[in-house]
Amino acid sequence: MTRDDEILAALAGEKKINSDQAAEILSAAKFTGKPVGEIILERKIASDEDLAKLKAGIFKLPYADLAGREIGESALNTIPAEVAKNYRIVCFERQGREIDVGMIDPDNFKAIEAVDFLAKGAGLNVHYHLISEASMALAMKQYDTTSKEINKALKTREEFVSSASGKKSEEKDKAVKIEEVTKSAPVVKIVSVVIRHAIEGRASDIHIEPVGRESRVRYRIDGVLHTSLILPLDVHDSIVARIKVLANMKLDETRIPQDGRIRLTIDDKDYDFRVSTLPLLGREKVVMRILDVSRQVPNLEELGFQGAALELTKKNVTNANGLLLVTGPTGSGKSTTLFSLISNLNKEGINISTLEDPIEYMIKGVNQSQVKPEIGYTFATGLRHFLRQDPDVIMVGEIRDTETAELAIHAALTGHFVLSTLHTNDAVGAITRLVDMKVEPFLLSSTLRLIIAQRLVRKICPYCRVEAKLPSDFLADLMAALDSLPPEYRRAQLKDAKADKLVFFKGKGCPRCGNSGYAGRLAVTEVFEVNEQIRNMLVEGKTVFTNEEISRTQLFITFKQDGYLKVAQGQTTIEEVISVLSA
Ligand SMILES: [Zn+2]
């Protein structure tokens, strides 16, 4: 009888399942590859704790319940967090040389080997216990310093609330009470821990939202939201109120959305938080966008520009006049690229003005202005004013209407270098989009200099990079794209051009990348220059271009070619490239 059979037989003995169900669970386990225990829990045949007790009986191990138990630091750190998370084992008690270790699956010999190895090195005696999934989750949480600090703050808050509510005037003045709460030490502490951990984790945004009976805190890191904390719902309103106070918002207004900002200095660096609230069924959601004011603008190479794209871009940012466009959907890193270009142009003797929404980087010596459409200060009105301010270089956050398009073209025609972004999927789409906005093709022929289209993909974490195999159909697609490149270009980009010598990588996940296997992002690009041939076609009234037509006029590397090159170079994974190509 296997362990699985024993577990199912024990459940049958308790009349929780019949023999048909037992057989069905076994085949489901085989079919899905899930452990039998997981299926039992999913189908609610036994509770998490009951299953752990039952398994403890079968494995002849003591059962331990870690609910509500605070694990001492010395016990917890007997097994490093990484090992504990990987093997799902935890040390929950340490008395002298004796340690108590909890596990879910005693058949996991690798876990036992790892613990025995650690224990032997430290001269410790191990006592194994069987614990439930819930106990394991609780124990893992204690490794997380964020939850640790928050839990501490929550505890003092409970004491604070219970000592305050012991008095009779509980219902008195709610507004005054919330004012007090926002200043109470635990709430202040929770908010500051949430903010500090976001910065340490390189998050770009913090979301604090009510979900069911909890308040959820999520961080956006490298474009992906990760749940970082779950707090009791009763602190949600105090946390939101505290943030609203910091952001200078109206505390008593909870029915309409509000915007505000917070300036903070953390570890000698200045941060700007753009805060917005949204009313959601009686409670508010808060989103904070983090702007590191002192951060350096990355250069083009750091952004992921390489090969033909890099050369063409460098060649064209020295232009004295004309229009340069960066295109892509929201969140494709367009404005970072614009800033990188601008910081290259930023010298004394050149007047650079920008119109932005929002301001994402602060650059010394550049006149940066934030548009406010609600008071009539739009990209178009701002641009009109700019032209009176004798600028050399103008950056307009986005061209999204005919008026802005006309003004940008006018500025480019009258001797200015204009940089802006457009919302299009690919590089050739930019021309069509401008023509749709009623710009005459002949005006484009005399102003357009360069079009950059881009997408962001996540970079493989350098700390846990391992070789990976590509599925054969992916490999065929990738090889076809690489084969379509000019051979000498392909050789220059990939040191070894032979298909059977290509090596691919992935991140297997480690603590430094939060187990995602990725760290940081890079751009996949498509860049073309509006050269004489394209100018002539525009003058003749051609408004729709294909990638093939552009390729006939210059070395044009498409998204697919650039993305797959970056996979073959080991910078990113094929999954990342495919997901941005199909988006
Ligand atoms: Zn990693």
Automatic annotation (TrEMBL):
GO cellular component, one term: plasma membrane
CDD domains: PulE-GspE-like
InterPro entries noted in UniProt: P-loop_NTPase, T2SS/T4SS_dom, T2SS_E_N_sf, T2SS_GspE_N
SUPFAM superfamilies: EspE N-terminal domain-like, P-loop containing nucleoside triphosphate hydrolases
Top-level lineage group: Bacteria
GO MF: ATP binding; ATP hydrolysis activity
Keyword ATP-binding appears in the UniProt entry: yes
Keywords: ATP-binding, Nucleotide-binding
UniProt key word Nucleotide-binding: yes
A Pfam family this chain is assigned to: T2SSE
Domain Bacterial type II secretion system protein E residues, every copy: 387-401
Family, as annotated: Belongs to the GSP E family.
Protein name: Bacterial type II secretion system protein E domain-containing protein
Organism, scientific name: Candidatus Falkowbacteria bacterium CG23_combo_of_CG06-09_8_20_14_all_49_15
